[in-house]
Write a structure and sequence with these properties.
With about 280 residues, this protein is mainly α. About 65% of the residues lie in helices and about 0% in strands. It has 13 helices and no strands. Helix 1 runs antiparallel to helix 2, helix 7 runs antiparallel to helix 10 and helix 10 runs antiparallel to helix 12.
């Protein structure tokens, strides 16, 4: 089974950019999400077993006594949320998405996939914004950015998801339009049909980035501006790789150069970007 750590993520949180007093909370949140994700992705568990374990995580997060050390991450996050006065929905929303993963939900439309992202990804954005006491007006563009990140991860993991997890995130309507069959997702190399299908989804993902591009300019925190510009740069680098390379034949990862370029870009843009104020027309 494949387990991820923070260093394995293409879009890891840059802990060094956050105040020391926030890092323990961020780590607790990450560990909770990582455990829930690993449960949902565990091919050795049945759907019923996955749901039971995810339910245990939620019950302990919401106050049930924790006697099993396996679920201690939920108790740790509960204590951290209470200390920082954060809403438990930032974590329970994630579990809605992981339950869909556990039961093998099939996405018929792009809208359904984006709805999934409102639970699987958007809560992470709201969490980081809440840590910086940002305005709720930042949540909508943040949701678009988080959806883009989630879909990029789905696209680069097409083969693993289909062959190991028996899970498909490509919308069925898009697969049908480009005549993509399920067996194409596990092939040694990308077919012409799958190439056109993924290219269409890449364009839709660029649309999500367009919807979110205002975000670094409306957050107040300078460190968060830097982090956001880094993420935008990394996301575009991965989308370029997905469009230009055979993502089935070769696992796509961001290079050291990609990361250095993104950090440099993020620092330059973040340090000089002026904060904009939203009005009734959006700006």
């Amino acid at each position: 089974m494949r387990y991820k750590s923070q260093k394995d993520e293409n879009f890891p949180v840059a802990f060094f950019l956050f105040p020391k007093e926030k890092r323990a909370l961020i780590n607790a949140y990450y560990q909770f999400a990582r455990m829930a994700d690993d449960i949902a992705d565990n091919p050795s568990l049945s759907s019923e077993q996955k749901l039971n374990e995810l339910n245990n995580l939620e019950e302990i997060l919401l106050g049930k006594d924790c006697s099993n050390p396996k679920f201690a991450v939920a108790k740790k996050l509960r204590d951290a949320f209470l200390e920082h006065n954060l809403s438990f929905s930032l974590a329970t929303d994630l579990l809605i998405a992981f339950r869909q993963d556990a039961t093998g939900f099939v996405y018929q439309t792009w809208a359904q996939l984006c709805q999934y992202c409102t639970y699987s990804a958007a809560p992470v954005g709201r969490f980081l914004l809440a840590l910086h006491d940002e305005s709720p007006s930042t949540y909508l563009p943040a949701a678009s950015l988080c959806a883009a990140l989630q879909i990029v991860n789905h696209l680069q993991d097409i083969k693993y998801d289909a062959s190991v997890l028996k899970r498909i995130y490509l919308p069925q309507e898009v697969m049908s339009k480009f005549k993509v069959s399920e067996d194409m997702l596990s092939s040694p190399c990308v077919s012409a049909e799958l190439r056109r299908c993924v290219d269409a989804l890449i364009e839709k993902t660029y649309g999500l980035l367009k919807d979110s591009e205002i975000l670094p300019y409306i957050v107040k925190s300078r460190t968060l501006k830097i982090e956001l510009f880094v993420i935008f740069c990394l996301t575009k680098s991965m989308l370029y790789k997905l469009k230009k390379k055979d993502f089935l034949a070769h696992g796509l990862k961001l290079s050291i150069y990609d990361r250095i370029k993104a950090v440099f870009y993020g620092l330059i843009k973040g340090l000089f970007a002026q904060t904009k104020t939203l009005n009734s027309k959006g700006l």
